[in-house]
Amino acid sequence: MNRRRFLLNLSALPAVNIVGGLAHHISPTKSLADADLDPINTASMWIYLWDLVDEGYEFVLRRLQENGITSISLACAYHGGKFLLPHNPKRKVIFVEDGSVYFHPNPKLYGAITPRVSSLVREGHNLKKTMEHAHNAGVEVRAWVVCCHNTALGMEYPGAACQTVFGDKLYHNLCPSNPDVRTYIRALVKDIASHGVPVVELEALGFQPYTHGFHHEREGIEINNAIRFLLGICFCDSCVRRASGARGEIDSVRQFTKFTLESYFENPHTSAERYADISSLPNEIFDPFFQWRSSVITSFVEELAEEVKNTNVQLRPLVSIDPSLRTQLGIDAARIALLTGGILVPAYARDGSALLQSLSLIQSLVGENEIIVGVQVGLPGSGGKKEFRERVRTAREMGISRFNFYNYGFIPYESLGWIKESVTG
């Protein structure tokens, strides 16, 4: 069953049942399970440059090919981290150089913010070398770019970082309203596109949340979803100027946010009962604000699409499968898919039935534009082989034939077999 036919079947259902009641009308183990699976067109593996360097370019590319992988999505601009590498022959733990790029940047393209270049690039390893090895192996190389999540650049250029209602800098988040940030990301995309990659995957394009998982991040009170959202709202000068000129109701949002957070910090239990989640926040204040944030990110994507319009490069922004999170981040899935021709959706739900409901909503929003589904392979995120294969099968039964898998360096070699079975089965 292809995606067009699935959507036609879906459109015949009552509108109120598309999300909440979809499982009552379509069972992935009955009406869809008997359908022919669409063939996998692309299976891309998210990967880091150090994976290729430490294990050997040819060895990794051959192993991935043998397990059904047709392309790799190489991290070309990435944040920091501490990662366990179970099958790496040279090291088992890596502390990633924060906010670095993994190619030779063209300095003429950048403005006030300039890239931090990885030491691996200085040692002779980079996107270009990876593409040469991959071309010889018959494997496509895509560029995986983390945009607004960059603690190192936030600390180096504090004026570009998001800012809480109290004036505290959120260094892990570059603000997408900031002109210097937008110039930097545009240059990054143009620079990477000049290497001839067919696809640039754009992660963290929107307004990022307060919670980061930073080193020794601590909280001494319980913080619910609504309070976490309010803590992460950016009130930097760029946001205030942009919102004030677009009727974003920034003053009302600022007053409400400051009062609510101060009340919560003084008496968490009382405030938590009043504002338990995002939906409990006053619509008259936040609806215009959410619309404004969405306009910021949509215009950002328009600028990025302009940078590659005369090339063969496709942009594939990562879009959350969670509608509430999309709203918080300012992501309009329909508009973004229309601008770029497709989106990449990390579908990290544990079971296929949950994926069916949420992914069908995404399909209804983007129409005939391409959807790539990202799937966790490692544990505990994947849930295991059975759950992994169920998710891939569910997406294929919905007419989706393009996948990304997370992540080569994190998983045992054994788990690559799950991908091979899902791609060929």
What is the strand and helix layout of this fold?
Layout: H1 3-11, H2 22-25, E1 42-47, H3 49-55, H4 57-66, E2 71-78, E3 81-84, E4 93-96, E5 100-101, E6 116-117, H5 119-122, H6 127-137, E7 140-146, H7 151-156, E8 161-163, E9 169-174, H8 179-193, E10 199-203, H9 225-232, H10 237-244, H11 250-266, H12 268-274, H13 283-307, E11 314-317, H14 323-329, H15 333-340, E12 342-346, H16 352-366, E13 370-376, H17 385-397, E14 402-406, H18 413-424
Parallel strand pairs: 1-2, 1-14, 2-7, 5-6, 7-10, 10-11, 12-13, 13-14
Antiparallel strand pairs: 2-5, 3-4, 8-9
Helix pairs in contact: 3-4, 4-6, 8-13, 11-12, 13-15, 16-17, 17-18
Question: How would you explain this protein's 3D organization?
Answer:
The chain is α/β, with parallel strands linked by helices and 425 residues long. The chain has a single domain, classed as Glycosidases (TIM Barrel, Alpha-Beta Barrel). 44% of the residues lie in helices and 16% in strands. The chain has 18 helices and 14 strands. The chain has helices at 3-11, 22-25, 49-55, 57-66, 119-122, 127-137, 151-156, 179-193, 225-232, 237-244, 250-266, 268-274, 283-307, 323-329, 333-340, 352-366, 385-397, 413-424; strands at 42-47, 71-78, 81-84, 93-96, 100-101, 116-117, 140-146, 161-163, 169-174, 199-203, 314-317, 342-346, 370-376, 402-406. The strands form three sheets. Strands 1, 2, 5, 6, 7, 10, 11, 12, 13 and 14 form a ten-stranded mixed sheet that branches. It has a two-stranded antiparallel sheet with strand order 3-4. A two-stranded antiparallel ribbon has the order 8-9. Helix 4 packs across helix 6 (127-137). The chain is globular, with a radius of gyration of 22 Å. The two termini are 15 Å apart. The relative contact order is 0.14. The model is unreliable at 1-35 (pLDDT under 50).
